[in-house]
Amino acid sequence: MAIYQSMQRVRFSSPDGYDKFKTVFSDVRNHLKTLPGFLHLTWWIHPQDPSWHNEISLWTSMDALKAWHMNPYHKAAKEWAVRSGAIMEDIIANFELKTTRLLRICPCCGTGLDKPYELNQEQKVLAEPCAKCGFHFPVMPETADSSAVFKDVVLASSSGRDVPAPALAGS
């Protein structure tokens, strides 16, 4: 099973362009969460350059990512950005996931954890407490302005039953 990441690095033409973009972007959660194959979106401002914005999104397939780009909301948002001149530059790179690991040190008991996990079940895995003492690690919640949106996905098996994806080779 492949997982895809799309990464965008965006520069806005002005602070006003970014403020207007945030209005459009704030509704993205309502559209992403309904899409089959959507897993995760995070948007942040680069700490050394506040005009540099970064987004990553994670998908269960390249087709799911392509479907997002054909979504009427997404298409209208991109058309708005072009028409308004809000976005000056948008650099897009897509990647295919090879492995995912969780490394943790419990701040309560000091127990270390190093385990592979399935990215399509990341929120479930991140919510697991320390196996030794039960410490609950902080987990970032979704943000009201849609700069962080998360969804675990159960993948369909070849038998048609919904099952978590098998462990990745080389994990």
Structural write-up:
25% of the residues lie in helices and 30% in strands. By secondary structure, it is of the alpha+beta class. It has a domain at 4-96: 2-Layer Sandwich (Alpha-Beta Plaits). It has a 5-stranded antiparallel β-sheet with strand order 4-1-3-2-7. Strands 5-6 form a two-stranded antiparallel sheet. The two termini are 13 Å apart. Mean pLDDT is 86; it is low at 158-171.
Question: Can you give me a brief rundown of this structure?
Answer:
The chain is of the alpha+beta class and 171 residues long. The chain has helices spanning 15-25, 28-32, 62-70, 72-84, 122-126; strands at 4-12, 38-45, 52-59, 87-96, 101-105, 112-116, 148-150, 155-156, 162-163.
Properties at a glance:
171 residues; alpha+beta; Alpha-Beta Plaits; 5-stranded antiparallel sheet; two-stranded antiparallel sheet; 30% strand; globular; disordered C terminus
Query: Strand fraction band?
Result: 25-35%
- End-to-end separation in angstroms reads 13 Å
Uncertain segments are 158-171
**Quick one: how many beta strands?**
9
Structural class: alpha+beta
Query: Strand order within the widest sheet?
Result: 4-1-3-2-7
Judging from the principal axes of the Cα atoms, what is the shape?
Answer: globular
